[in-house]
Every structure is written in C-alpha cells, then in structure tokens.
Specification:
The protein is mostly helical. The chain is built from 19 helices and two strands. About 60% of the residues lie in helices and about 0% in strands. A hairpin with a 2-residue loop joins strand 1 and strand 2 (about 295). The longest helix has 18 residues, at about 30-45.
C-alpha cells in the first residue's frame, strides 16, 4: 500500500460527515441525515447544467450515493435517470475535452461493473489521440483489455507491453487532477439560490460545530463530496502496472524492464500529482528488489521517504474546515485552490495555497511554506534524522508533525 499525505487528510472530517449515515457512522448521523436529505436536489439540478463536465460529475455523485444505499431518483421524478448514458452524452457534447473523457472512462469502464456502453467503446484509442504525449492516456488501457484480480501478477501480454512502452515514451503524466471541479463549484454557487436552504438544527448543528463545519459554505461541502467521488471512484487501479512490471522482469523480459524503469522515472519526475509521484517511487523501489527468478523484501531509503515530509510541509491548513487556522479564509479559498490545481498541478497548488494561508495566519504553520525546499539543503545526516523522527511521529498526528518541522526550521537559521 502506498502511503500518501494528500489533501484528503485535511478534508477527512468533512468527507466523513458528508457520507450517508448508517451503523458505521453513528457519530455523524444527524448531520449526515440533514445533508443527505438536501443534496440530491442539488445534484439533480446540475444534471441540466450547460457544462458537460458539471453534468458528468453530478451524475457520478448521484450514482455513488446510490451504490451506498441512497436513492438515485431525483426528488421530482420517480424514475432514476440513466446516469451512465448521461455521462456518455457529456463526452459527445464536448469531444475534445480529454480530461472529461478520461474521468468518465475511469469511472464507468474501469469499475467492477462497467457501464453498458463501455464494451463497444473506442474511448481508450480516442484518449491517446486527444493527448498522445500523456503517459496516463496509454496506461488507462491496461485495465481496459481484460486483466484483473489474480492476473495482475502475470507478465504483460504483447498488447499490454505495447501500451506500457508508449506510456514510457511520453513526455509527462497528467491524471487531470481536479479538472471539472472549479466549474462545478461555480455551478453549485449559482444553483444554491434556487434550491431550498440547507439548515442544521439541534444535534445536527452540534455535530457540525464539533467538526468545524458550521460555517462551511454549501459550495465547499458539495465540492468535498465531488472530490471524494473523483479520488475514490474515478481513478484506475495501478496494481496491473506493479504486478506486470515485476512479473515481466522476473521472467527475463529486457524490453519490459527498460520500459517499466523509464516509466517509473517519468511518473516520479514529470507529474504534478502526488499520487502518481508516489506510485513512480514505489515502482522503482519494487523493481530494485527483483532478481531474476525471485523477489527480495523492498527497503525504503530515508531519501525516498523525505518526499512525504515535504508534501506535508507544503500542505494547506484550512481548505475546508477552520480547525487548523485561527480564523476564516476568503469564501473563494477552495475555489482558488481547485483552479490552481487545474492550471498548475496539485503540488504547486498546495504550495501557493499554503503560502496564502501563511500570509494571513503565520502562527498556524511551523515555518513559511516558501522555505520548505530549503530543508533539502540540510546535511544528509540531519535529513536522515529528520525522516526517522517523522516516522516516529506518524501515528501522533498534525501537532507532532509540526514539531518535527519546527525543529528542522531552527536549523535553517
């Protein structure tokens, strides 16, 4: 399992409270019930939005809710809409939008129950045509040609290896992180005035206050739900890449080994998404343990673990809740973050957002986010000690992590 400190750790309280109430979520039952009773009207309203990406994301959220036991029917319509067909139509309505096509394909066609239109679709080929220098477009085809489960650990077939080699020859890896979310944030903001107000009372209000969500705008709450759906359901499984690379190298396939090695480096160095960078590092680490015919236990060096420290150093503290900032940020704070993510990539968006927060509330940060990169200039033995302390603090939470960075900051002065 790849360990990644990403934005979802900061959104976790809000995501947890936004989930349907049930036996595993009793602590947020009243809040969840109020939110779940209100939000279907929003998503159904957005099914008629003028922007195809907004319609697609709204339909994904409705379908995700249905899979968790919530009704998929819209409040004013007794029959559930054909959500997969709506998403397929969204692609046709915006045929040059590679991000939209990729997100819908990953959601509908790489799931355990592919949509009816997936089998006859030429979408994998279209994705590679829309963005030919993007390795991600070629990697999506790995799960689209029939291998899953136990077969993840078999050597690549000839067709699969062709996709891997094409991905390795690409110039970058773009998973279209956050695409569609800024437009949907604006659509939600415009829709709220035409919908019944979302009101929390009694126990629901108490739970919202406890989670730091009492004053969170509806636009942000809805976007949290979308982020959860995108991250959890509109992403491919990377197990076939891991298993295929390892099995092919063990079998003595020099071409596969060269392709996997190049691809791992590309993922680590030519992506602005933390998840892809982590997968690239993990793939490199796994391949380094392989000797023809056997696999040794991988050993993570402190250098490879330093990336987690840096990601946290650049992490925003107040994207949704105010629990880690002493006061509010501007109402468009999350929107600016999402827009930066689309235009600049996740890593740069985190850094710029954290800097804006620091400029308003410097006391909430262990050091100026603009100085995080200076940590890398510390002596190697100091960095190794930093990583050791960081690992020891992993189970203790934010305060302990901040203490490690404060100590590192003292050595920069």
């Amino acid at each position: 399992m790849i360990r990644m400190i990403g934005v979802l750790c900061l959104l976790a309280p809000a995501v947890a409270f936004a989930q349907p109430s049930g036996p595993d979520n009793d602590g947020a039952e009243a809040y969840g019930a109020a939110w779940n009773a209100w939000q279907p009207g929003l998503w159904c309203h957005l099914l008629d939005d003028d922007t195809p990406f907004v319609r697609a994301l709204a339909s994904m959220t409705l379908q995700a809710r249905a899979s968790e036991g919530s009704a998929a029917a819209c409040p004013d319509d007794g029959a559930p809409p054909d959500l997969p067909a709506l998403r397929r139509q969204a692609i046709d309505d915006d045929p040059s939008n590679a991000a939209l096509a990729t997100t819908v394909y990953a959601f509908d066609c790489l799931s355990s129950r592919p949509a009816p239109w997936c089998e006859a679709s030429d979408l994998p080929l279209r994705l590679a045509t829309l963005d030919p220098d993007n390795a991600y477009a070629h990697l999506l085809a790995l799960r689209g040609i029939g291998r899953s489960g136990r077969e993840d650990n078999l050597p690549f077939s000839g067709e699969e290896l062709e996709h891997v080699l094409r991905a390795a020859s690409a110039s970058h890896v773009d998973t279209y992180w956050g695409h569609g979310l800024p437009e949907t944030w604006l659509a939600v903001e415009a829709a709220v005035d035409s919908l019944p107000p979302l009101v929390f009372e009694g126990e629901a209000l108490a739970q919202a206050r406890e989670a730091g969500l009492e004053h969170t705008p509806v636009t942000d709450m809805a976007t949290i739900e979308l982020i959860a759906v995108q991250v959890a359901l509109a992403q491919p499984s990377w197990s076939r890449l891991y298993g295929g690379c390892q099995a092919s190298i063990r079998s003595g396939d020099d071409i596969a080994e060269a392709g996997c090695t190049t691809l791992a480096d590309l993922m680590e160095t030519k992506s602005q998404t933390y998840l892809v960078q982590s997968i690239g590092r993990g793939l490199t680490s796994q391949m380094a343990t392989i000797v023809r015919g056997e696999t040794r236990e991988p050993k993570r060096s402190w250098q490879s673990q330093l990336s987690g420290v840096m990601q946290y150093c650049w992490q925003p503290r107040g994207l949704v809740t105010e629990s880690r900032l002493p006061g509010p940020m501007p109402e468009d704070h999350l929107y600016r973050y999402l827009s930066d993510g689309v235009s600049l990539g996740e890593a740069r968006a985190n850094q710029d957002t954290a800097t804006r927060e620091y400029e308003r509330y410097p006391e909430a940060f262990p050091l100026d986010p603009r100085r995080c990169e200076d940590i890398l200039d510390l002596p190697p033995d100091t960095l190794e000690s930093l990583v050791t302390r960081w690992n020891e603090a992993m189970t203790e939470g934010f305060d302990a992590w901040d203490d490690v960075l404060r100590d590192a900051a003292k050595q920069l002065d």
